[in-house]
Hints:
By secondary structure, the protein is an alpha+beta fold.
Amino acid sequence: MKKNTMDFYRLSKIFYTYKIYWSLLLLVFFVNLIMQVTVIQNQQEKIREQNKNYTALREDWNQKPDDPDVITGYENRKMALEAFLGSLPEMADLSDKATEISSFFNKNGMTSGKIQFTPDRKEELSLWKYSTSLSVSGTYEGMKGLLADIHGSPSLFCIEHLSLKKGSEKDQVDMRLKISTCCR
């Protein structure tokens, strides 16, 4: 019995002697416990929730190939793409595009340099993309009319870049314009 009392006395003396060390050790333990409860458990809950969401999405995406909705959707998209590709002009029609753009300039009283299309092959769809960069000057109303004509054209034109700045003369606007079109 005496030996146990001595051990307790000796342990309390050690604790008292190194109380700063033991206090820091207890502080670290409680900080770790608080971090575990607040941060790590919250993160684990978020991970579980995200895993459930992922599993639900994955089940939606793993529809069987013989599902009629999947096959019909694929066929509809394929027919729409083929119709779009069929509506694109042949390369021989490219001069008509330049003439059409020139007529828009003339109609709206704009001045521009020469229209020269540069080719760019789009292999994934077997298309040719032709684009031209132009410097156009005229009135603001003429610019609006030009853009409206390009937008309303039955031809497929894409305005890739457009910038406006005040021209050198009164009521004049200078515009940098990059237009592209696609051909089969």
